[in-house]
Amino acid sequence: MSRYMMALDQGxxxxxxxxxxxxxxxxxxxxxxxxQIFPHAGWVEHDPTEIWDNTREVMGEALSxxxxxxxxxxxxxxxxxxxxxxxxxxxxxxxxxNAIVWQDTRTQNVVDAMEARHGSHMFRAKTGLPLATYxxxxxxxxxxxxxxxxxxxxxxxxxxxxxxxxxxxxxLTGGPDGGVHAxxxxxxxxxxxxxxxxxxxxxxxxxxxxxxxxxLPEIRSSSEVFGHAHHSSLMRETAISGILxxxxxxxxxxxAFDQGESKNTYGTGNFLIVNTGTEIVQSKxxxxxxxxxxxxxxxxxxxxxxxxAVTGSLIQWLRDNLGMISSxxxxxxxxxxxxxxxxxxxxxxxxxxxxPYWRADARGVIVGLTRFITKAHxxxxxxxxxxxQTREVLDAVNADTGVAVxxxxxxxxxxxxxxxxxxxxxILGIPVVRPLVAETTALGAAYAAGLAVGFWSDLSELRxxxxxxxxxxxxxxxxxxxxxxxxxxxxxxxxxxWV
Length: 499
Description:
Layout: E1 4-10, E2 14-20, E3 26-33, E4 45-46, H1 48-65, E5 73-80, E6 86-89, E7 99-100, H2 108-118, H3 121-127, H4 136-146, H5 150-155, E8 159-162, H6 164-172, E9 182-184, H7 185-188, E10 194-195, E11 200-201, H8 203-209, E12 218-220, E13 223-228, E14 239-245, H9 246-253, E15 262-266, E16 270-277, E17 288-293, E18 301-308, H10 312-320, H11 330-336, E19 345-347, E20 365-367, H12 375-401, E21 408-411, H13 418-428, E22 432-435, H14 440-452, H15 459-463, E23 468-472, H16 478-493
Parallel strand pairs: 1-5, 5-14, 9-12, 15-21, 21-22
Antiparallel strand pairs: 1-2, 2-3, 4-7, 6-8, 10-11, 13-14, 15-16, 16-18, 17-18, 19-20, 22-23
Helix pairs in contact: 9-14, 10-12, 11-12, 12-13
């Protein structure tokens, strides 16, 4: 009998396999980081072959650490960094270029040309998204126009496009030997190519971008059997039965299934999602309208999303670029060694500013520097930047929905940083709640896959698995909160008009 579900979590900095039992508890896991490639300022790439190799390694390790085989696994769910674009040769399985990562800003000229030609209203009305380098369409165009022979091969039907979920699914199910070329609605909704009402590729949008439709994967629901692992695979014959983009997966893993329920994920970036049910809500305050999930033939559920480009990656920057810390875990102790930020603010607009500003011209700043400031103050300001950015996004959510969020469920790697979580509650003025299983991204993918194969029966069974681990209550005055926010907004203004 298959007693467990497997989740593949293909993230921005690493790929993980986590195996869950029926209660949603972690049984085993394995993780591998992959190289972050920065060929030029503003360019961010990954090697798709390295990601696929790492995926196979972590699948095997997770099984062996729990002394399990494929026979113990009822199904596999995939979750992934969403807007990252991969184009490969369907005959050989070789990528024609590195994956262009969601943080990459090289395609600003492509986006500007599209806006000059078509305006931005058509794209937001049909996709729920602003015209921005963040999304996959401009990345596909760049590859086709800048890799020798790529456009000709695409027009001949020899190339395929996918976000990392599609890349893994295709390889898992056989690659050139009958691999399934598909994605789910949540990932497709992040391309600027899908109509969010029909949940299908929009011919007008595809034509406007000049992308051959043969590149595009089939769009399916988030919870169904996409295919089975190839006979040459470690997981041969196991069903691949769920796909969710990482932020939607985290929302699902937090059991935020119904209208008004929300979560905030603290990872490479931060992503706050509020479920709007079957209603499409077009934001007037800088948020994205997106798909939350779709289960089989059920109607899709929609969401508002506040996307913040740089949060956890700011701590990596302190480690890798400045050498201020030797590991990300050290930042809390360093930040806690001072009582406050000393008047220093860090605004990490490395890829411009995402929600709620959408300023491609912005670049990062450190302000308020005096001789008094030490690396501890900068570390504290870096952590606080995550909380300040989240506050601005939550304000936009409250304005769009007309209903104030009363508490914030949180997940992701940074939620184990107690200093950050307390400051987050302070600056929001509402409780911040961490669940028992913080790895909700992988858990959400496992849930979607498990529903499709009958491992779990319904959403109420999943909701019963959720449990609270820790609650942080606000501990500063309204005056202190308002003063800190006013200084933060002054710092944000200093990032504008840099490029």
